[in-house]
Every structure is written in C-alpha cells, then in structure tokens.
Amino acid sequence: MWRVSLVIVFGAFVGMLDSSLVNVGLDRIGTDLGASLDEVQWVSTAYLIALAVSLPLCGWLGRRIGVGRLWLGAFAAFTVASALCALAGDIGWLVVLRVVQGLAAGLLTPAGQTILGQAVGPERLGRVMSILGIAVSSAPAIGPTVGGVLLDSLSWEWLFLINLPIGAIGIALGWKYVPRGEPGGAGRLDWTGFALVGLGLPLFVYALTSVGEGGGGIGPSVLVPLALGAAGLVVFALRSWRRERPLLDLRLFGNRVFAAGTVSSLFIGAAMFGAMLLFPLYFQILRGADVVTTGLSLLSLGLGTMVVLPLAGWLTDRHGGGIVSLAGSVCTVLTTVPFAFLGADADPVLLQALLFLRGMALALSATPAGTAAFASVRREQLPDATTVLNILMRVGGAVGGAMCAIVLSRLLPTGAEHAFQVAFWWLTGASAVAAAVAWWLWLVQRHERTRAVPVPA
User: Fold this and answer.
1) The model's pTM
2) Could you read off the pLDDT of 319-344 as tens digits, one per residue?
3) Which residues form the Major facilitator superfamily (MFS) profile domain (predicted)?
4) What is the distance of C-alpha 162 from the center of its chain?
5) Which helix (H) or strand (E) holds 150?
C-alpha cells in the first residue's frame, strides 16, 4: 500500500509543481522567444484550461482502460510533453505543447486518488490520502523558489527539463508497483455530455482566471465566456442527472456525506487558492520582495501543511473527516484574521509564525473533507467521485482567485495596505463559509453513524 502511495505522489507532485514553476519564468520565456506579454501569458493560461478539459474524461477513461493504465499513460505523456516544451522554438509551439502537458496533468491527480481509494479501502484512506496531500500542497509552495533558483543560473528550458528525471523515476516505479485496474464497463462515451462540460468548464475557469491575470477587470472578454461556461455546466448537470449512463454520475450527490464533502472541498478550494494568489502579491507589492524572496517567505506555509498532514490523515481515519475538517476550517479562519490588521511593517517573525499555523490549519481542513467524500462511495464509484471533487476544487480555486483579484484591483489605487487588509477580510469570509459547510459535513457523518448503530433488542 505504501509503495503504491509513494509512487502516486510522484505524479501529483510533478503536475502541481509545474503549474507554479513555469509562471516564474514567463518574462524570460517571452524575451528569448520574442513574444509579447499577452502572447507569453498563454503559456500559463493554456495549461490551466487544458487541466480543466481533461478532468471530465478521467472517470470514463479509467473505467475504459483501467485506472492504473490511465495514470501511467498520463504520466508518460506529461513527461514527453515536458521534453518537447524545452525544445519549442517559438511561442506558438510552446503554447500547443503546454496544452498537451496540461491535458495529461489533469488526469494524474484524480486517477491517482482512484488508485489509492480502490487499493486501501475506507478504513485507511485518510492516512494514505494525507501522503498524496503532502505532494499537492508542497509543490506549489516550493515552485516559485525552485523556478527562481533555476533561472538565476540556467535557461528557461530547465523549467521543463526538471520534470524529466522525476517523470522517469515515477514511470519506472509505476510500471512495477501500480495496479493496472480492470478495463471495460465504461460503455459508449457520452459525446454530448463531454461537449457541454468539456467546453463549459474551461470557459468558466478561463473567465475567472482572466480576472486574476488582468488585474480584476470585468468586461465582455470575461462575462461572455463566464456566461457560456456556466450555461454549459448547468445543462450538463441537468442532463447527467436524468441519463442512465452519463459521462459523470452526478447522482452521487444523493449520498449526503459525499455531497457535504465535495461542497466543503469547493469552498476550501476557494479559500486555499485565493490565498495562493494573495500571499505572493502581499510580499511583492506591500513588502517589496523579489520572486526568490517571496518563494522563501512562503515556504513556512507549505511546511506547516506537510508537518500536520500525516496527523490529519490519522485523525480522519479515527474520528471521521467531518470533525477534523471543521476544526481545521475554524483554525484557518483564526489564522487569516490577523492578516487583515497587519501592515507593510509587520514583524517578519510574526508573519512566518502565522503562515506556518495557517498551513497546519489547511492540512486539517482540505484532505479530511475530500477523504470523507471518497470513503462514502462504493469502489466502482470512485472514478466519478474523484473526478467530481477535483472539478469542484478547480472551480472553487478559480472563484477564490478571482474574488481576491477583483478586491485588490478596485482598492489598490486608494492604498496598498488598505487594499490587502480588505482582501484578507474577504479571504476570511470564504474560510468562514468553508467552516460552515464542514460543520454540515460533521453533522451528516454523525447522523449516518447514529443510523448505523443497531438498536438493542
């Protein structure tokens, strides 16, 4: 079990690392390839959109060819695409190859979660998922630092070449240890459903991501894809609920524990990814830090998460994900509020202590909620369950990032310190909503356990 878990971590780590690593080098890439800022921004945007495109297919592909084969194929495609990105001679080819890389990366995390869920069962799922969570949380934290160090002494191509040794090791170990899964039973692909969600989800994520990248501006270039994306997702959901064999089985939401766990993950994703946008800007704009210093300043956030995740997994297996996620979400609120009062001259030691504590709180909130959702479904439902949860996490992350970007863009002209304080109040509000939904998850789990206890004769 642990060997399989550690192998799956390779895929989750490299996929998450790449999303934050390359962003550091966009300026260098644009200069070397003679591309404008608008053109080079698509190196990042195309990757994020491709991640969203491939997610809905993960469940169907896992049932079609076996989830282990899907994971191996996606990891191999990601590694090859990384090598080709380093060889790209112009910005157009680099963007195309980033799409291929993103399509593969979008399959790695949900496929890996499905493999682990089917391999270990619900009793030990918390401890195993916490190991996967270490990779998912640590990679974005160290990505900017690693990227900055690489660019200090090497060319931008190494932002992609660094994936090759990790990919080679992961594929070799995966070939030996990852179970291939059972192919078959997927049925015909629901092309209409895929068209709806395959266009709706990327348009929705793109629109919200554009808000963040464009400094919070909202115009037709945001509103049109946002409306089309939302409409596509709504029609997909209504259609899937009525179909006998949909692309994604949304009838899983009839399971109250799964519904509470996934909705909790949606709002936790908003609070978590909103903070990922806000904290780097806090150090760069308000405190005048460069990219490397900003990355080093945020390491304590990832370190706090890594330290506590094993404990969070053990507590989840012992007491249930609801109560652990509730405690973590409340602690997230308590560790976010102080930032709403801190100014540009805040004590660096205090900042690092708060970031470390917030990382610990995130470890107790995010992974237990998702684990509770996965543990509540049957083994054959896991491919759809992991896909749905990852989609909601991605939507929540895009909403959280857009929320923080809009607040900052509106208030920065009035003063950076005031703008960041208000933005942190909004982030506190998102964390409070996540805590409320985690409370609902805890109540549902407690009710289900009460129903399961036999009444004495």
Assistant:
1) 0.82
2) 888 899 999 999 999 999 999 998 78
3) 4-447
4) 21
5) helix 125-153
